[in-house]
Specification:
The structure is a homodimer of 505-residue chains. Chain A has 505 residues and is an alpha+beta fold. Chain A is 56% helix and 13% strand. The first copy, chain A, has 3 domains: 201 residues, Beta Barrel (Butyryl-CoA Dehydrogenase, subunit A, domain 2), CATH 2.40.110.20; 149 residues, Butyryl-CoA Dehydrogenase, subunit A, domain 3; 145 residues. Chain A contains 16 helices and 12 strands. In chain A, the strands form 3 sheets. In chain A, strands 1, 2, 3, 4, 5, 8, 9 and 10 form an 8-stranded mixed beta sheet that branches. In chain A, a hairpin with a 5-residue loop joins strand 2 and strand 3. Chains A and B meet through helix 5, strand 11, helix 6, helix 7 and helix 8 of A and helix 5, strand 11, helix 6, helix 7 and helix 8 of B. Chains A, B: This is Acyl-CoA dehydrogenase. Chains A, B: InterPro entries: Acyl-CoA_dh-like_C_dom (IPR025878), Acyl-CoA_Oxase/DH_mid-dom (IPR006091), AcylCo_DH-like_C (IPR036250), AcylCo_DH/oxidase_C (IPR009075), AcylCoA_DH/oxidase_NM_dom_sf (IPR009100), Diverse_Acyl-CoA_DH (IPR052166).
């Protein structure tokens, strides 16, 4: 790791931000703080601490008192970092295919682990004195279980003991996210196995992981949203200063922010990134309330694939436009735009690819109780918007209403195809469905923001508040309207993709 | 430069490929050969030799016999490379604002040049013994003129003489296209000026450059198309081998090419990159026939902003999906996908940004004689398609016909707004217009390909030929249909972007 990454991480933990996660603060507050600290250095700050926090949470939820006593505190005070070691070379999206084996020893809860892991973020570095891996492996009966595998094993007196037997075999040379290492490694090459401690029960590994999954997927969406917003702000700053070309009337050199196409690129970034951020804050809030409200839990379930995916695709698009505002300068490392663009490209891939999220949404989630509840909440927003009687809000209420109706219609039609037994046809264009559902949800959140802005002040000269209303209008006209095309495609049950022969690709 | 770049360039010129440009071959043949050689290493091969060839062509077209004798041959036999030195720090898209000055000397045609240049591709390297810059500077009467500025000045006996007085001040650290340096440099810091030789007449610099512009813009489109096609082939290879997850019926490990969403990603890449390549070949052909046909010249004029832009935007999108097919592997340098993605991002920027191309198309070109001719040619294709009476072709003819009618309608409506004096409103959504026109043109070329494939064989088991028909169907249903949404937006004369206040961005 570049030595400056350690400086950043130290500043983060010295500032008390790692401890923040232990303070029982509302999740949306954590998300909001992460948004500010993380946007400065998404892979370095957000990457390391999200992983560490997830590892700490898993340990606290399922670990034995002895393991918690030894390993939990250093993960939460910023002394150590944590990882999630799930994938293997042959098992990325398909975790049931992992081949790493865990053999029980005579000591209860202690196992010897042999095998290999791939794509482990933060798997090794020298920035902290210990690293704690949360690792999936199969016990002899082939059950997938969760283990704590420390870099250095903690002695009973709390001191650091022997170095565990695993070997970092290499670093994956990623296009971006260079503030966080990513390694392939093998366990137990030089012994009976690396030492691992069972977390929870044997065979409950995937179950435990899935409890973390929602949180991790919100963080991926957040990371994408932050890259989007960072790009928006950096390119806006540039556009406000850069002069190029001539004003057609005055013939003076023109500041580029005044050109229509530059405004389009900035507005696109604004609606994508602020819409995505609103979605992440909503999901964070639901993750809290889901603990006491079954309804909120169901709504969150249906939103999760959207939270993971929509920001990842559309804030990458936003970063494309951020570079474009700067022209050649955006393509160089003199400005941070090419970095956020490279960083952001990862978010469509990790924690479940787009394709997998779209199958989760259309093939599973929308058939559950969360979907009608989500529709109800969107319809409630439409109703409140109409009641404002506001000249700018009411037309947008009707745009959202149409989009929600389209989503309901398409979902019903596709659900019918699935129920009739043709699951393959139902899922043939699931990526378009994911985008359509996501764009509708973001349209809803923009309308909520516009209503809130208007409620604060209807004075259109308040540029922050009216900027929200204006951005909402832009989203409705330029983005939400695309769901018409998507709905038509989905309702036509087009089977071009599935009928395409492999040799014709 | 990495030393392997020189090996590649040497192999290219040793193979006689640089000489190819002097053989009066049809331009489409050159494009086709460049497509094969260039796709292996777009920035290194295509970048260096397109620039060198453009420099050689400019010299041949406008240079004095003495300059041609001294500088032309080494540019065409691969001994030297050439550059186009246009932009300056304050003058990127707006070349009239350049400030580099050229003072005449006592020797006719010889000038002393002082100033600076920015974004010069291939401005310096040690791979060849000389570099020849085609450089724009202003003569004392403020006229923009074109100069040949050699790195080493050629003596009368043909030997290399003194090193010219310019200084490379730095390299622009680009996100991609690392096979081609890009520098900022200053001329005449240590003397009365760097030596430059006038090419053509004083004040005719931009005119000369514009004659090269069409060719350079076709090459940008080609470069984007090649990145797209390279990504398609690499990700197809991977998808044919990689196993992940289970077949829902057999429960065996499944090769990922069989998943619907992977097929979608491969088909999207195929239609974007092969459509873009067809467009570049058409434009190359028109560039030849334009020399004898006024009509072809007009059609080429209207196509040029599309050739430059559509491949650049949609083949970048294709590369996004190429990475996605590989998942995490696509994000690493173990595979070439992240490289082509980084490389391709430049194409939306250089040789006139997207924004500028869209103004050129909608604000100028479609009002000229080329647009009705283009429409006529597309209508002719529809007619031929209908006449085939083929079950697969006829429905696509009707899809294209609707799209062409939409384009005509939108163009007429926007033209009317412009004629009524509201140019700002006409151009408010010019980027959407550029995409709509481009997608319609690519739809046309796909239909041409499908007709040609069917004419060769209507046997659907010929997977190459029927793959073209199938890809055309995919394009019509999944891509061309988007022009409905774009047409609605454009016809609504939406002014959200232009009415947005700068403080609301």
């Amino acid at each position: 790791m570049h030595e400056q990454v350690k400086e950043v991480l130290d500043a983060y933990s010295d500032g008390g931000f790692t401890a923040m996660h232990e303070m029982d603060l509302p999740f949306p507050s954590l998300t909001a703080v992460s948004a500010i600290t993380g946007s400065a250095f998404t892979s370095g700050v957000l990457g390391h601490w999200v992983l560490t926090q997830c590892a700490a949470n898993l340990l606290k939820a399922f670990g034995s008192p002895d393991l918690i006593a030894k390993y939990h505190e250093p993960l939460t005070d910023g002394r150590w970092t944590g990882t999630m070691a799930l994938s293997e070379t042959q098992a990325g999206s398909s975790l049931v295919d992992i081949s790493t084996k865990a053999m029980p020893t005579e000591t209860p809860g202690k196992y010897f682990i042999k095998g290999n892991k791939m794509w482990t973020s933060g798997a090794d570095h020298s920035m902290t004195e210990n690293i704690v891996h949360m690792l999936l492996a199969k016990t002899p009966d082939n059950k997938i279980s969760l283990f704590l595998v420390p870099k250095s094993i903690v002695n009973d007196d709390g001191s650091l003991g022997e170095r565990n037997d695993y070997t970092i075999n290499g670093v994956n040379h990623k296009m971006g996210c260079r503030g966080l290492s990513n390694c392939y490694w093998s366990l137990g090459d030089n012994s009976d196995g690396a030492t691992g401690f069972l977390i929870g029960e044997e065979g409950k590994g995937l179950h435990a992981m899935f409890l973390m999954m929602n949180e991790m997927r919100i963080h991926v969406g957040l990371s994408a949203a932050l890259c989007g917003k960072r790009g928006h702000l950096e390119s806006l700053n540039y556009a406000l200063e850069r002069k190029q070309g001539r004003n057609p009337v005055t013939k003076e050199k023109e500041t580029i922010v005044n050109y229509a196409d530059v405004k389009r690129m900035l507005l696109t970034q604004k609606v994508h990134s602020e819409g995505a951020l609103a979605l992440c804050l909503l999901a964070s809030s639901l993750a809290d309330s889901a603990k006491t409200s079954e309804e909120d839990k169901h709504v969150l379930d249906v939103l999760i694939p959207i939270v993971k995916s929509w920001p990842s695709e559309f804030c990458l698009e936003a970063n494309k436009w951020a570079i474009q505002v700067l022209g050649g300068y955006g393509y160089t490392s003199d400005f941070p735009l090419s970095q956020v663009y490279r960083d952001n490209r990862l978010n469509m891939i990790h924690e479940g690819t787009h394709g997998i999220q779209s199958l989760d949404l259309l093939g599973r989630k929308v058939a559950g109780p969360g979907f009608p509840l989500l529709i109800e909440r969107m319809a409630g927003c439409v109703e409140r918007a109409v009641k404002t009687g506001d000249d700018e809000i009411v037309p947008m209420a009707s745009q959202l209403q149409s989009a929600v109706e389209r989503l309901v219609g398409v979902t019903k039609k596709l659900g019918g195809v699935g129920k009739a037994g043709d699951v393959q046809l139902m899922l043939a264009n699931s990526h378009d469905y994911l985008n359509m559902a996501g764009t509708t949800v973001i349209g809803w959140l923009w309308l909520e923001m516009a209503i809130a802005a208007k409620a604060k002040s209807s004075d259109s000269s308040d540029s922050f508040l009216h900027g929200k209303v204006n951005a909402c209008q832009f989203f409705m006209i330029h983005e939400l309207s695309k769901t018409q095309h998507q709905a038509r495609l989905l309702e036509s049950l087009d089977d071009t993709v599935i009928k395409t022969k492999v040799e014709e690709l």
